[in-house]
Amino acid sequence: MSATMSDIATKAGTSIAAVSVALNGAKSKTLKLSPVTRQRILDAAEELGYRRNQMAGALATGRSRILGLMLPHAWAYADHDPFYSLVSTGVTACAARFGYNVMLFSAAAEDEGNRAVKMIDRLCAGLIFVSPPADTPLFAECNRQQIPFVTILAGRDSGPLTVNSDDLHGGLIATRHLIDLGHRKIAHLMGSSDVVTSGPRMQGYRAALAEAGIAADLALCVEGDFNRSTGYNATRKLMSLIPERRPTAIFAANDLSAHGAIEAITDCGFRVPEDVAVVGYDDTWYATVTRPMLTTVRMDVPAVGSRATELLISFLEGDKAAATHSNLPVSLTIRESCGVSRR
């Protein structure tokens, strides 16, 4: 049986009220603890193996040590996309380091977001939104209830605390790599239109083409939708174009759609990378299980989740000097799916 506040009060020689103030941060207008008394209570609690009841502490202080994590769609929790699981890993690992727990909330998009608004609770100290839609009603609800939140990959203007990556540069270096290998007919499997990162990645793609003097072909920009099946279907259509229009390289907005592209190229009777080179985005573990292994833009995905959690906890703990916006760098991981220079 775990120790109670009464046990701690007896051992420390204080009142139960004093123990509550020391352990839970409960406010008292009449009871002031000296540093010596507070430390004596803390030492007694540790010696007795006391475990703080987080919900009781939340009722006493009006704030818990629970963070809410919300992904953009409900299917993201069960989908095979490793991106979301790696973000969640970064969030939960960082939260644990600071003594916080993580609760999964309903998704932020469309009707799911309207339902989620009704579930937000002040007992949650803060919320972490992953790629939320710009028009989600959750931001307004958090502001109304004065619940701090941080956004991941939603743009710097999405809130007072944000974590983003340099997606324009990512699209630029991916496309430049294909151009440097001698490709001129380069297709782009675009991300979802409601995800903020899709636009900058496409802008980087177009910027690389422009600086190489290559005219953008709108027929080669197709919806990949960040998933394998859409990437597969879109690539089959690209491979059905006449030889003069057919791409010799594809830049996909994430690793899943790149995997779909590789499967479609093979099913259409072509080879990767001999006939068509493929570059993905995110550099999750998924990039190492494709055949051939995937060249991809590397984003340290767990670090994205960890950094967002650090920003939120620093805000909650009152660290006035803490950063409020982070923009994480990207790089290119070269593997097998692009082959050697066509020159």
Summarize the structure.
With 343 residues, this protein is an alpha/beta fold. The protein has helices at residues 5-12, 16-24, 35-48, 54-61, 82-97, 110-117, 138-145, 167-180, 198-211, 228-239, 255-267, 301-316; strands at residues 66-70, 101-104, 126-130, 149-152, 162-165, 186-190, 221-223, 249-252, 277-282, 295-298, 325-328, 331-333.
Tally of separate helices:
12
CATH architecture group name of the largest domain:
3-Layer(aba) Sandwich
Molecular shape = elongated
Helix content: 40-55%
Compressed to H and E, one letter per element, the order equals HHHHEHEHEHEEHEHEHEHEEHEE
Number of DSSP-assigned strands:
12
Our count of domains comes out at 3
Q: Main beta sheet: strand number and arrangement?
A: 6 strands, parallel
State the low-pLDDT regions, or none: none
Describe this structure in words.
This protein is of the alpha/beta class. The protein folds into three domains: 5-61, 434 Repressor (Amino-terminal Domain), CATH 1.10.260; 66-165 and 302-328, Rossmann fold (3-Layer(aba) Sandwich); 167-299, Response regulator (Rossmann fold). The protein is built from twelve helices and twelve strands. It has a six-stranded parallel beta sheet with strand order 2-1-3-4-5-11, covered by helices on one side. Strands 7-6-8-9-10-12 form a six-stranded mixed beta sheet, sandwiched between helices. α1 (5-12) crosses α3 and α2 crosses α3 (35-48). The longest helix is centred in the N-terminal third of the chain and has 16 residues, at 82-97. It is elongated and about 85 Å long.
